[in-house]
Amino acid sequence: MKQARHPEPGEMTLVAVLGALSDPIRVGLVRVLADGRERGWGQLHAPVAKSTLSHHLRVLRDAGLTRTRQEGTRCFVELRRDDLDARFPGLLDSVLDAAHSDDIGAHVHVSDSPA
């Protein structure tokens, strides 16, 4: 598998980040990844097909919100909180607070067991 490209913090744009956060599934993925833990893709559960979930994860990665790491046949994803906070101070916390209060993305969850 080809190594995924991750934009450098200076390459992240507000338009790309906000565009990536314009979907409730992607907001839900950011919510579950906000705990700072790296998760296997198989641990992430959303009410969409696996191919659609993969698309959402790619959109988040391409915008710079997440980092994907491959280990053998498994893929892992983590939120790039430090890079986001450095590039757009306060944005992620504001989005997470609003998503929590408006219950956006609550239908996305993570299992504790690796899949």
Automatic annotation (TrEMBL):
Residues 6-99 form the HTH arsR-type domain. Pfam families: HTH_20. Keywords: DNA-binding, Transcription, Transcription regulation. It comes from the Bacteria. This is ArsR/SmtB family transcription factor. The lineage of its organism: Bacteria, Bacillati, Actinomycetota, Actinomycetes, Streptosporangiales.
